[in-house]
């Protein structure tokens, strides 16, 4: 039994080291990633920059990812440290998202097994899923019922009911002090947010990560192609339900 535990530790540490290296080689746009403690691979600190043209533009949201010993066979836990008002984020900051749920077949959950965690997922897919969730909440099984009701009012009124947007705007403003304290410049334009990956100089910018998520040709395509990179407020729930 002890030998199996050692095997899990060795394989999960190897997986996490490879992922950390991959973030340095091919960073993900809109994120800053560090280890909470250099000697502990199982706790990562993430700062998420709010995508431009969304409610979260200019925001600097801190979170922690805690990995289990048997990662990647079991999913990590993702918790926001920054106060977040969102249908799928619990009051304590825990994110409720299918990709972080263990791969069990549970018909009661309304989730397909294919939507849940599997060992081919990784931190990159989690981060992109969280960004997608921020803009396109799942209101079918909310973690925060009040936020879900308020979001639906905003969506169904085509943005005329401003209560949901105003709460987020205030939370975004409140994060500016954190960004200043950490010496971080938050991107506020699409050009800054979607900058193509360049190897940063060793002495500066080495912890500010952006993703080379698509080819140059795609940048010239329809705006719909930008969905994985940047979200437009008008596309995230202002259509008829």
Helices and strands in order:
Elements lengths: L1 H24 L5 E7 L2 E10 L10 E7 L10 E4 L42 H13 L9 H12 L6 H19 L8 H4 L14 E2 L6 H4 L22
Antiparallel strand pairs: 1-2, 1-5, 2-3, 3-4
Mean pLDDT: 78
Low-pLDDT residue spans: 196-241
Helix content: 25-40%
The sequence of SSEs as H and E is: HEEEEHHHHEH
Total DSSP helices: 6
- Biggest sheet character: 5 strands, antiparallel
Question: Strand share of the residues?
Answer: 5-15%
Find the CATH superfamily: Ubiquitin Conjugating Enzyme
- Overall 3D form: globular
CATH topology: Ubiquitin Conjugating Enzyme
Structural class by secondary-structure content: alpha+beta
CATH class label: Alpha Beta
Number of DSSP E strands: 5
Rounded to the nearest angstrom, the radius of gyration is 18 Å
Written description of the protein model:
Helix content is 32%, strand content 12%. Strand 1 (31-37) and strand 2 (40-49) form a beta hairpin. It has a single domain (11-189), classed as Ubiquitin Conjugating Enzyme (Roll). The protein has helices at 2-25, 123-135, 145-156, 163-181, 190-193, 216-219; strands spanning 31-37, 40-49, 60-66, 77-80, 208-209. Residues 196-241 have low confidence and may be disordered. The protein starts with a helix and ends in a 22-residue tail after the last helix. A 5-stranded antiparallel sheet has the order 4-3-2-1-5. It is an alpha+beta fold and 241 residues long. The protein is built from 6 helices and 5 strands, in the order H-E-E-E-E-H-H-H-H-E-H. The longest helix has 24 residues, at 2-25.
């Amino acid at each position: 039994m002890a030998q199996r535990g050692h095997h899990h530790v060795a394989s999960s540490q190897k997986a996490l080291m490879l992922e950390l290296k991959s973030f340095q080689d091919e960073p993900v746009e809109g994120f800053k990633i560090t280890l909470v403690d250099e000697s502990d691979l199982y706790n990562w600190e993430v700062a998420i920059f709010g995508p431009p043209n969304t409610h979260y533009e200019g925001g600097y949201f801190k979170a922690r990812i805690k990995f289990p010993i048997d990662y990647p066979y079991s999913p990590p836990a993702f918790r926001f440290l920054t106060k977040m008002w969102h249908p799928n984020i619990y009051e304590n900051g825990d994110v409720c998202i299918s990709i972080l749920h263990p791969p069990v077949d549970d018909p009661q959950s309304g989730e397909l097994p294919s939507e849940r965690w599997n060992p081919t997922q990784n931190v990159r897919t989690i981060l992109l899923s969280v960004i997608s969730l921020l803009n396109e909440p799942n209101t079918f099984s909310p973690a925060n019922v009040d936020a879900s009701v308020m979001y639906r009012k905003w969506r169904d009124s085509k943005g005329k009911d401003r209560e949901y947007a105003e709460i987020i705007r205030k939370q975004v403003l409140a994060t500016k002090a954190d960004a200043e304290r950490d010496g971080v410049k938050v991107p506020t334009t699409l050009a800054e947010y979607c900058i193509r990956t360049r190897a940063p100089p060793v002495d500066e910018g080495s912890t500010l990560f952006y993703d080379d998520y698509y080819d140059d040709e795609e940048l010239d395509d329809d705006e719909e192609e930008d969905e994985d990179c940047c979200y437009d407020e008008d596309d995230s729930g202002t259509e008829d339900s």
